[in-house]
Amino acid sequence: MQYKIPFNKPYLTGDELDFVGKSLNSQHLCGDGEFTSRCQQLLEEKLGAGKILLTTSGTSALEMCSVLCEIEPGDEVILPSYTFVSTVNAFILRGAKPVFVDIRNDTLNMDETLLESLITERTKCIVPVHYAGISCDMGKILDISCKHGVTVVEDAAQGVNAKYREKYLGTMGKFGVFSFHETKNFMCGEGGAVVVNDSAYLERAEIIREKGTNRKQFSRGEVSRYTWVDIGSSYLIADALAAILLAQLMNMEQITAKRKKIYDTYQNALKPLEEKGYMKLPVVPPECEPNYHMFYIILNDPQVRTDLIKHLQTKSILAVFHYIPLHTSPMGTELGYREGMLPRTEYISERILRLPMYAGLSNLEAMEVCNEISRFFAEQ
Ligand SMILES: *Cc1c(COP(=O)(O)O)cnc(C)c1O
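# pyridoxal-5'-phosphate complex -> structure
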């Protein structure tokens, strides 16, 4: 079905086609060509910390981190249940046992005050997911990880170009993960990156990314031939996709500014409905600078959400929700989790509604969404 106002629409800056053409003409179509290195350099300069390795997706970037953390069967990894499946799969694939932590009411990020009660001798990693591009409380999370000798892997898939106390998300843990999937702020269809913030791990990261070979060292002339030296997989993104990504990254601030405008429109126009008690709007803690990845509202009960989605649909506007909590999914149940174990996660997942959000959404369209939401509540 075609919507007048879809939920997401990939936004193109205008330079993508030119860069893709250059990439095709370069005759270097596989990974680690000119455009991959230009993206990596641009991000490294922008973030001012860490080494960037582009990958085929955020999912594969998480898998690389799981290998880098040397996860062994039985190791425990603490992560939210309120997240995308890739956050947990990456660690389960290495034999880890996921330990789900409930979320905060304000940011919907992991509740850092619950972490210490979940840490055991087997805890290897904590994976803060920066939901909607708003940072977790990294100050507290890093303190706890330091105290207990646990590695932090930031799932910043939604957090590219967002900050916490002046630091970019993805640069504070030992490793960070970005996604450039079509639905993210800066995209190339499918793509991702690992941020390696501890240089001691850079060489191994390069090897894992290159199918467990030391090809990278070979191409730098550091070894005379390349061979199998470790485990690994195929994590390089095709250079033509990196060409699309470069066009997006060169326009990061323009894209962010467009999204901010939509976010502010939603925030201002829906404020009166929040004041009347119909919904809750997103909260941004003062130490966080968001990237305006998402705009969501939290309704008072699940039925109102169902009715509002239907109302918007009749006006050809698509609003969607996520996530089915990981702990109540079939896989979560198999792992021994039950409904009722993470009350805030369950409460939010039944009441959250995400509004259309993409850089190409006009202010007029965002206003139309708000007007329809107001009309819905006026008719209640
Ligand atoms: C999008 C996303 C991922 C996965 O990224 P892909 O590039 O789609 O593989 C992982 N974690 C979170 C929180 C995400 O939003």
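# post-check
The two ends are 27 Å apart (CA to CA).
Residues 252-275 form the longest helix (24 residues).
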